[in-house]
Amino acid sequence: MASLPTPTVTAAGATTKTYSSSFTTTSPVISSWPLFSKKCALNKPLKHKISCNAGSSENSLNNLDRRNVLLGLGGLAGAVNLTSVPSVGAAPISAPDISKCGTNPLSGFRPGESTPTGGDCCPPDSPQIMDFKFPKNEAFRVRPAAHLLSPKYIAKFNEAIKRMKELPETDPRNFLQQAHIHCAYCNGAYTQSSSGFPDIEIQIHNSWLFFPFHRWYLYFYERILGSLIDDPTFALPFWNWDTPAGMTIPKYFNDPKNAVFDPKRNQGHLQGVVDLGYNGKDSDTTDIEKVKNNLAIMYRQMVTNATDPTAFFGGEYRAGIEPISGGGSVEQSPHTPVHRWVGDPRELNGENLGNFYSAGRDTLFYCHHSNVDRMWSLWKMQGGKHKDITDPDWLNTSFVFYDENKNLVRVYVKDCLYTNQLGYDYQRVDVPWLKSKPVPRAPRSGVARKSIGKVKQAKEVSFPVKLDKTVKVLVARPKKSRSKKEKEDQEELLIVQGITYDSEKYVKFDVYVNDEDDDASAPDQTEFAGSFAQLPHKHKGKTMSKTNFRAGLTELLEDLEADDDDNVLVTIVPRSGSEDITIDNIKIIYA
Ligand code: C2O
């Protein structure tokens, strides 16, 4: 790996602090750069080991531990209905041919529709494509927490966005053109034609492409902004919604005089605490409760439900298949609920952030995703199984983006695994959710309670089941009382299989385990196992989509003292857009 350039930027708000969590180092000021250096300054971890080499550039292909990947949802995909899929050899998805953008007969622009489909968000064509080169001899960029920006930094951020908005509409660096990138890769403008499958769309959500696509997208976005203000140190702020002080929309986003302002946001949410588990309508939880719930959601999605690469990144998605294997933990939540929480309910489709086609039109989108991207870095710092996927089809997936010089550049997933190679990292701030493990709602009072309530509550369910009301079902555990070693080798996973839902709606349901009371547990209680959430988007002329959901059970069942039980009571509570959801099956696997 090329040695790190000396960082020349000091993130605003950078002060030396002693933090309470195990991710903490010293200040974001650069003496501690990189966090991943030989002098790994991380404190002793809580329960999950954090390794110093999380950011090293050693090629993970050389350290193949394919088992994590192969035992993931790959096997499951076969169980879901894949009959419409042409014979699939292992092959990565190749960057789209942008000259064919919007010509997909299955998804082309349908005039008069309120939500545009892919055809009307195509980029200008380019006569040539360049290959990506790592930045060299450049200033290092430190992405700062958005709520800690100095007035000076806010001013330069605004100026950069203003200039981006002022570029001619046909310039690929123009603000709307940049927003269109997201729409094109999400709303069916591109097909897998470069991979030989012209009638299957490319979709960068709901699978293992989610993290790398958005990392590359932001990489170029940030460089364009920096070049427009002639500041090679400019770094995209991250909306730090995983820490209490960062849980509101930073004020400067709400000032109409600022270029980062967007009128299409939920007016009731401009000041309050974000709800990382947003159900599509406001609840009466107090801000204090929301903060507590948010931290617990973070712990669950980053720790309990992200025990291996498939759980964190999402299921596999190769050339020739539809992205149905399922999105990763963080993509489902908090990523999706935050979109919906900001989106404007006065708009027909929750524009801007509340719908995929329009999300990129809100500047907050990029700060939201900057924090999502930061989660990737934090997740890898946990070490152990918290590694990038090693499957060559993931590593060799490619995309194209316009860079700051208006060149179309082809990039590969394998080149975006380490932010320091890409010339940026994140300001070090507290990570309070590491210590926010949910607690059981009711401690188990001896054996008496065991299974009796569960069995009584469960209903006979015949699959596929419709989710128009709460579903309670007893799910058998193929193994119980596993040894420590067995648990380390394989996570016990709850799989909700073959979820068919209306992709034009905001869809969310919550999953609970062994919750024997009538009203469901709160997110900061152990019984709450996770949420399935999908942002609306139109694609391929059809509205129903199919996918899977998974949640980690090993730690959860230990905490509920239910590790010796034969079965678990699974409760699924529909929260939004659930009228037409059906579920093919619920089962427990080990992977
Ligand atoms: Cu591509 Cu947050 O979505």
UniProtKB/TrEMBL annotation:
Provide any one GO MF term from the record.
copper ion binding
Residues annotated as binding Cu cation A are 182, 205, 214
Name which cysteines form disulfide bonds.
Answer: 101-122, 121-183
| A GO BP annotation | pigment biosynthetic process
Cofactor(s) in the UniProt record: Cu(2+)
| Tyrosinase copper-binding domain mapped to chain residues | 205-222
Residues involved in crosslink (2'-(S-cysteinyl)-histidine (Cys-His))?
186-205
- The answer to whether UniProt assigns keyword Oxidoreductase to this entry is yes
Q: Which UniProt keywords apply?
A: Copper, Disulfide bond, Metal-binding, Oxidoreductase, Thioether bond
> Where, in this chain's numbering, is Cu cation B bound?
335, 339, 369
Q: Is this entry keyworded Lyase?
A: no
Q: How is the cofactor bound?
A: Binds 2 copper ions per subunit.
Per the record, the similarity remark reads:
Belongs to the tyrosinase family.
What's the subunit arrangement here? Monomer.
- What is the name listed in the Swiss-Prot or TrEMBL entry for this protein? Tyrosinase copper-binding domain-containing protein
Q: Which organism is it from?
A: Lactuca sativa
